[in-house]
Amino acid sequence: MKISQVEELVGITKKNIRFYEDEGLLSPERDPENGYREYSLKDVDELMKIKFLRKLSVPLEDIRKVQKKELSLSMCLEKQSSNLKSEITSLENSIELCDSVKDKNLDYSYFKADDYLEEMHRIEERGGKFMNVSQTDVKKKKLGALLAAAVFLAIMVAYIIFFLMVSVSGETPMPLFIVIMFVGIAVIVGCILALRQRLKEIEGGEEDEASKY
Hints:
By secondary structure, this protein is mostly helical. The chain has helices spanning 3-10, 14-22, 41-55, 60-67, 73-103, 114-125, 133-168, 174-210, and strands at residues 29-30, 37-38. The chain folds into three domains: 3-67, Multidrug-efflux Transporter Regulator, Chain: A, Domain 2; 76-125, no CATH class; 133-210. Strand 1 and strand 2 (37-38) form a beta hairpin. Residues 1-69 form the HTH merR-type domain.
């Protein structure tokens, strides 16, 4: 059957199906004449299993291990059940602290977080979890740096293309053209090197600072 039929039967998008194929979780046969994928009922059944496990937030790597019989389904679900229970406990701890502060109707200007941070620390020592500030904040900083660099690089590439088009008309003297191209390429290379250094700083020093929270 075609992918559109599988999409309708399983209730997931073509993009999802292709993604699972790319991840090696699904390997449909191909028509020897045209090379098109031909999905079988077995593939549909496999996708149903994948969909079920993913809706339980089971990681792709664990699904892969189950498929390869490196991990039994029971052990996989026992592990995921434990993870979910841990998440529930963490959420309950966060809710309890939220309610505790909310019920006191404190003004932010006079709010003293020290006592609550100490309580969080005690909960974490007992195995509780809260948001990992260092990982989350560093990821956001990385994304911001990458987006800024992408925008700048796009502008510089457009700048180079523009002068290439102008040079074709012969209106730009060759020495000036060479200088402009050299400057543009140098700026792009410099931007890439600066971005690389910035990402190293985020992963290094700034992450160390964030981990003190």
